[in-house]
Amino acid sequence: MIELDLRLIKSRRIELKLTQQDMADYLDMGSKANYSRYESGKYAFDANTIPMLHKVLGIPITKLFTQKVTDSETIASTEEVS
């Protein structure tokens, strides 16, 4: 499963010395608390937000995503090797 790399987003934000309120303001999300819900994964960033994350964080769009491997995919992969 491909999903946004929330750890990368958070670490890059911190590296750039941007606060959650800075991000909320840039992404027009209103409050720090609201942005925090997105960064923690409680809410999902929508497709319109991805280019804005790319621009403010300076991360290529393709690098914003990561491949998450589920337990069932790991088991299936292990069985194929055996």
TrEMBL record:
It comes from the Bacteria. This is DNA-binding helix-turn-helix protein. Residues 9-64 form the HTH cro/C1-type domain. SMART domains: HTH_XRE. The keyword DNA-binding applies. GO terms for molecular function: DNA binding. InterPro entries: Cro/C1-type_HTH, Lambda_DNA-bd_dom_sf. SUPFAM superfamilies: lambda repressor-like DNA-binding domains. The keyword Signal does not apply. Signal peptide: none annotated. Keywords: DNA-binding.
